[in-house]
Amino acid sequence: MTQEDLFKNLIAHAKEYGFIFPSSEIYDGLSAVYDYGQMGVELKNNIKRYWWDAMVRFHENIVGIDSAIFMHPRIWEASGHVGAFNDPLIDNKDSKKRYRADVLVEEYLAKMEEKINKEVEKGRKKFGDAFDETHFRATNPNVQRHVQKAGEVSKRLNEALNANDLVALKQLIVDCEIACPVSGSRNWTDVRQFNLMFSTQIGSVSEDANVIYLRPETAQGIFVNFLNVQKTGRMKIPFGIAQIGKAFRNEIVARQFIFRMREFEQMEMQFFVRPGEELKWFEYWKETRLRWHKSLGLGDGKYRFHNHEKLAHYANAATDIEFEFPFGFKELEGIHSRTDFDLRRHQEFSGRKQQYFDPETNESYVPYVVETSIGLDRTVLAVLSAAYAEEKLEQGEERVVMRIPAMLAPVKLAVLPLVKKDGLPEKARGIMNDLKYEFNCQYDEKDSIGKRYRRQDAIGTPFCVTIDHQSLDDNCVTIRERDSMQQHRVPVAQVRGIIDKGVRTGITQPG
Ligand code: GAP
Q: What is the predicted pLDDT for the residue at 285?
């Protein structure tokens, strides 16, 4: 099965089992907006908690806030979002479809990469065991031609974006003979800038003065509270402020499920440091955040850094942590050394000093900032796509299993009486009542035990506890483990310890 088919199946599965629903579905949906269902919200909350603990609880010098989504409109002028938070857009005159011009070129480059890979595969088939991929890539004329062309296109794209040269960007689309995927024509408008912020009005009178924005990032809520937190928390530099919250962007290329949404959640942390020390902290946070990702257990090989060549207007160093989604390596988290840009701009626009008095150096200064910014929904997608597996079992059986890391699994434990009579439900309820304050448990007595195991596999429950007639005599139950499907008979008194260990360490084998 191709990655594309697998991804489609995952999207259908996420809906069928209550993880993610298209928003407003009974009204035919709202593009790039999604709702989290009963399983999705648990998963999302578990990821939030895992991030919050790692950032706020485990760092004495990081505290959290929860700032409002609506903020004074001048904030977005100061931050540069009103002037520069734009995407370059182009319309096809025949289909009337709108595209991001840079994404059209990126897709063209991805197709060239596919062509190169096809050539390599052809070579592999032709030469069999004697195939030397490095040599082949370096010498095959077709590969060489594609590589050279891709290099040229990529260089022109970067130059056009860096110089904000919309004419050059249009010319690149024309020269690459890129056609509209819908109409197939090359009848394009000029490229123009489109601001991504949603605006609305505050108050009862609709005048320009009342226009406010839905925040496109949570970071500015942290910057404008920098001194509030620093003073009331008696924070000493270096220190961080973390926040989890909604952000809104009027994305034009809104696709790939929850990867690019118009309403999404970010988990951001701004780390305030002494000027001149920002690049040291930038390296620290790069490594620390990568370690956090790897600790999720989705596979160390699924992550890579992508250092930015084109830096945002506020940054002096930036990298992305990319994750290997079913549609390739894409940005999951951004780590930016934002200099003193934001605080300085707020100082200028608000007229209030945004300075810190450093008791160690006896100096006042505007701190520099290193930011870590991870998309919560993208993390959900990373977890779901790494977890989803369609497996063939013995005797021709099949199962879909979500191998969600135990600490993130929506339900930790399913409690299953073998039959719904003879006192087994009462015994099962007793066990569940004993454990439900510590773990999210689900009780299920409907259908055969096999079907119930499959249902729990499908939502990623790491443990099932089955209560049978013998349990009434020996006070033992069968624990069935999701990934290995192994079953162990254990005393009821040991169940708590086994689940606890599994949830804390990811070790899901009893014992
Ligand atoms: N404060 C910095 C900032 O917002 P960003 O790279 O624009 O930086 C940070 O966004 C993270 O937010 C991204 O790495 C991504 O995970 C997530 N994100 C951004 N736009 C998104 C969208 N439209 N849908 C879902 N997640 C998004």
A: 98
Domain with CATH 3.30.930.10 in the chain: 1-71+212-403
Q: How many CB atoms lie within 10 A of CB 207?
A: 8
- Stated pTM of the model: 0.90
492 alpha carbon, distance to own chain's centre? 38
Q: From the CB of 240, is ligand 1 less than 6 Å away?
A: no
* Ligand 1 nearest-atom number relative to CA 254: 23
All CATH 3.40.50.800 domain ranges in the chain, comma separated: 411-505
pLDDT tens-digit series, residues 169-218: 999 999 999 999 999 999 999 999 999 999 998 886 655 568 899 999 99
Instruction: Give the integer Cα–Cα distance in Å for 377 and 382.
Output: 9
Q: What pLDDT is recorded for position 209?
A: 61
**What is the model's pLDDT at position 509?**
57
Counting as low any pLDDT under 70, the low residues of the chain are: 204-209, 254, 506-511
d(CA 264, ligand 1 centre) in Å: 8
pLDDT digits (tens, 9 = 90+) for 43-96: 999 999 999 999 999 999 999 999 999 999 999 999 999 988 999 999 999 999
Phi, psi at 186, each rounded to 5°: -110, 35
Query: What's the CATH fold of domain 411-505?
Result: Rossmann fold (3.40.50)
Which residue CA neighbors atom 2 of ligand 1 most closely? 373
> What CATH number has the domain spanning 1-71+212-403?
3.30.930.10
- CA of 129 from ligand 1 middle (Å) equals 44
Q: Is the CB of 373 under 6 A from ligand 1?
A: yes
Please list, residue by residue across 493-511, b when 16 or more beta carbons sit within 10 angstroms of its beta carbon and e when fewer do. eebeebbebbbeeeebebe
Q: Which of 20, 34, 220, 264 to mutate to test the pocket of ligand 1 (most atoms within 8 A of CB)?
A: 264
Name 326's Cβ contacts closer than 8 Å, sequence gap at least 6. 3, 4, 6, 7, 10, 385
Please give the structure tokens belonging to residue 234.
Answer: 């008696």
Percentages helix, strand, coil for the chain (3-state, rounded to 5) are 45, 25, 30
Ligand 1: does its nearest atom lie under 6 Å from the Cβ of 264? yes
